[in-house]
Structure formats: C-alpha cells, structure tokens
Amino acid sequence: MLLRRETHSSMSMALRAQLFLFLISLSSRMGLSRYIEDNDASDGLYSLLSLAQKRESEDFIFRRPLRCLDMLAMAGSFTFVASRPQLACAAFIIAEPDEVISLELSDVNIDCSAGDFIKMFDGWVLKGEKFPSIQDHLLPVHQRYTDYCSSMAPAVTSRSSQNVAMIFFSIHSPDSGFSLTVRKLQNPFPCNIMSQSPEGSFTMVIPHQRRNCSFSIIYPVEIRLTELSLGQAKSNKISPKKEGWSGCSGSGDYVGLLGGNSLDTSKMFPVADLCFSTSGLAQMKIGCDNSVVRLVSSGNYVNRVSFQYRLLENNELPKTQENSLDNICTVE
Predict the structure, then answer these.
(1) pLDDT grade, residue 155 (50/70/90)?
(2) Is the pTM of this model over 0.90?
(3) CB-hemisphere CA count at 13 Å for 237?
C-alpha cells in the first residue's frame, strides 16, 4: 500500500482540541465518562495544547506527566504516578498518516496480583469498537494487545500497524505507576489512517494484495474522488446504497464511502459504492461524526484512489430529525 500525503505536516492546536473533544463526546456516548470524571478538563487538554508549536528534533525529548485520560500527538517520555486509585484510564496516541507508533514501557511499579494492569493496543478501541476494524486489520484482535502483566519483562514494547495506538491501565495503589516512551517511525506503506485534519487530499494504493484500507475522517465532510483506478471495473457511475441492494461488494475491488458515529468502520453506515475507473470528479457530502473512504482489493490488481475532503460548513450540516437515520448522518 502507498498513501501520498498532501496535507500540512502537523496538526494545529485548534484541530488537536477538536479531536480530543470528539473523543470525549464519543467516550461519553459509549459509557466511558468515568475516564473524564477522574480528570480536570484542563489536564486533558494540556496534552494537546502544551508545546504544540515546538518542533520535534533529535536533541529534544518532550517530557511531561501522563493523565488518566489523555491524548498524545507528540513523541516523548510520559510518566504516570497514581495519586489515588485510578481504575479506568486510557491514553490515545496519534501520528501523521505516513507514520507508525512505537510504545515502550519502563520503570513499571504496579501489582498485577492485586488487579493492576497495563495494556497496549494496536489501534484505538472504545467499548469494544475498534479502529482499524477486524475486517481491515491484518492481525486477529488478540494479537493486537500487548499485556505487561503477561510478560513482566523490564521493558515491554509495542508497535502499531497504522498511525494510531493506545494504552489503557488500571492502578489501585497510590504512588504506583510507570513511564511510557512514544516514538514515531516512518511507514512506507500506510494503510488504515485516522486523519488529524478536517481537510486535505490523499492517494491510497493497494498493489496486488488482498486487504482493505480505510481512511477515517472524524468530521462531517464533503469527499471528492478525483481519480479511481480499479483493475477490473464494470460499472460507470456512483452507486448510492439502497436497502436490499448489494452494490459493488461482489466485485471484490471497489471503494466504499461510509458514515456514522462510531470508530469501528464495520459498524458504520455504507452510503455509496464505487466500482468504476475514472479520472473525473465524483463527490458526496457525509454529515456524520465519522466519514470513511474504504478501498477494498481482491489482490488480483493494482487499485488506486485519490480524493480530497473538506469540513462541511454549518449551513451544510443536516437537520436533526427524531426517529430517523438523519440524526446519525445525512448524505448528498
């Protein structure tokens, strides 16, 4: 897979705050509000806004405390020390689209026999919903977890397959804790991307591999497909999904547009299939919390999709209607 990035190289403070607030909203809807109750709002946003404009360099190691609910967009060293029992904590880590994340635990001082744990996950997971989904990730779910208490090694490492990862932990005793080192590594073959920005342009390529690649944009956006090249294409028009219609899924090589309010693409609403090659422009507005471009490949061909996306203006957002799919999302 190859993904060509054409957006800005870093996420602004405002966009980091938007991403964090989205996670707070999603966590609250999914029963994870207890994470938030253990932290002051200022503590949570600190991780996104502090030194956001400072460049990462080889001779600078960013250091700060880790919060019980946190989001990390910078490489560095983060230390957690419990001041009281902290039983439901999580930190979400995000990198640039062409990067993967390396996590290393050290100086761990917890009691696994008392119920403490530290687990790292290849992707993001919220209340059972996962990104990338089980359909899109190459590894089975159990292999995506790294459990400190199962290894008990002095230093435990984990490496993500895409630009997001997370760590979640439960610590019962005050003064117990650990250190987490976050590194970002270049990924020559990006697949399954969580976008940091509500606007940009990307190209995804899957060369002769049987797999799926999803590009997730956690904003309501307009998506413009500027190029689509599939190895074998039979249809020549964009096909909105209709009840009882299987769409392009039987072809084995297609692009799907998805919308919804979850992180897990397998639980999102399929709004359109595209199974044709074109150098023209196809576009669709998806008024959802999460909008996804998903490239599905049979492995028989080289498949490529280029697209642009932009945040919908307030007057373009759908009106909420009770007892309707419209209060989930609306597409045009």
Answers:
(1) confident
(2) no
(3) 3
